[in-house]
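so the lab meeting is tmrw and i was supposed to have these ready like two days ago... anyway. pasting both below. for each one the top line is the aa sequence and the line under it is the structure tokens. i havent really looked at them closely yet so no promises
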Amino acid sequence: MARAPRSSADFAQLPTEAAHPRAAKLDTMAPEAIAALMLGEEAKAVRAAQSRAEVIGRAARLVADKLAAGGRLVYVGAGTSGRLGTLDAVECVPTFGVPPSRLVAVIAGGPAALTRSIEGAEDNVRDGEQRLRRVAVGPADVVCCVAASGTTPFVRAALDYARFRRAATILVTCTGAPPTNGERVADVVIALDTGPEVIAGSTRLKAGTATKIALNAMSTAAFVLLGKTYGGLMVDVRPTNAKLWARAIRIVRGLSGLDEAAARKLIEKAGGRAKVALVMHHAGVNAARAKELLVQHKGSLRAIVGDVGNGGRSSGGAAETADDGAQ
């Protein structure tokens, strides 16, 4: 199994620990100059993620395939990496209408580490394995391990255990290429070459930015593949507050041509689900039949209603042939 470096000399070789050449006199610079340097470095984080678009896409496909088959996406990380994985997992639930049980976040030090630093937790190899054992990771799941250095013992132990359990694996790192000892580290490795931080080793900076961009792109692409959007609209949004109700109503109005009152009433009949409401409208069926159609078409609204033009008129989808007396 691949192991993290143990000596200070090993850590000194990590790109994330290197001193930044333009920060040698950081403590003497004006705040405006510090901000300008920081923002210039943050732009590099975007480019680092952009350069890995192809591999991020492969990771998204892997996630989508596992979720489609009934598995889970499990994020694992320590410190900033763990918080970013947790953030992505939590926010995908309302955005894409995903049951919370399908997205699991594991962070070194447990939930307390989300709000305060528990630095020693990242070295706990035993806990890395035990935490994945506790959530019963198995072949149906995909485990996304996030470690800026690529060497975090908690994360690498969790990754080793996930592979042992035959789960699909993804590693997100900011070292360019993580230590492998000649082994395949994960099914997909997203290596973001962000280079040295303005404050050496502070990977909450551009490494954190690049990681968040990569995770956003991966999860969003995966849920698009799973039919959770129509164009750029989050048609699977669950309206759990006033803002989300307003968004759901705008989506249904825009894709149906209904007025606000009619759109709200239709969403209520659909059990608060905008996508179901749209299938009801375009296919002329009740909520139960609309849900059946969505199952048949693997959650794809476009496959049912086709391309919706101005005024909410559909063309080319299955709605034209939806059978039914299910009104």
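ok protien two:
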Amino acid sequence: MVRRAYLLFFIIVVISGCIDKPEKVNLSIAVEPDIRVDDTDVRVAIAPVVSLKESYVYYEEMIRYISKKLGGPVRIVQRRSYQEVNDLIKNGEIDFAFISSGPYVDGNAEFGMKLLVAPRIHGKTTYNSYIIVPVNSSYGNLLDLRGKRFAFSDPLSNSGKLYPTYRLFLINETPDSFFGKDESGRAKFFYTYSHDNSIIAVAEGLADGASVDSLAYEYMRNTKPDIISKTRIIEVSPPFGNPPIVVPKDIDPFLEQRLKDILLNMDKDDEGNKILSEIMIDRFVNIDDNAYDSIREMRKIIK
């Protein structure tokens, strides 16, 4: 009961610290202050596909490897929402970033964010959105969750917001109309700002359902099976292009090519291949922009 109460408090804190008030989120890992003042280090941003601490652990060895190959320091920059990471790229405050597919589509359209490479995972360069519910619930599909508590990951997320919103659009519903409000007048859907937090919310009974990134879900199936065992997948979306690594429109061409070469060849040496294996990536590959057209089409239809 204490643990459940703590998790509820944690998610409420995340919700209350949305994009307008990110400083209210009090997590255990430091977030970089404003950057690029007389600083020539290469900077990489990590979008919070999973929570900040988990993201740091996930990417730490890879960034250390890239730094070694570049022959200079690479500093990790973290922000608490996809929009904040996109803003860093837009303003030229970082050199490359690990982001999700939805933010790429937005950033590419808004300020020319460019693809660098994408991961191939289990032989595929695509992923899905999973609609998940508590394992012992009776829900069979998204429509069964009308009027229930639902967790989205981030407003810019494809798998964690856009896809389920599109599903509702097809039946002339919106998140507001479909999930409704509680007795105090607050919306029954909320944002957790990472896919692992959404999965935990469902596992601990804090949400009746959630839409999550299949890659994050399958990673947790291997690393945190006790949490995944408390959930069940009830819907799987069509495939979407994998979350890419991106660079600003005006990146130095030499650095862009060096980063691409390092990542595309990472699986070819023992150290790099070991790091990739530990985070369940086969290798990095070139990916065409049209891999994200289905996301663009959903955004266009909804808007």
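from a quick look at the 2nd one: The longest strand covers residues 114-120. The chain has two domains: 27-123+243-291, 129-237. will dig more after coffe
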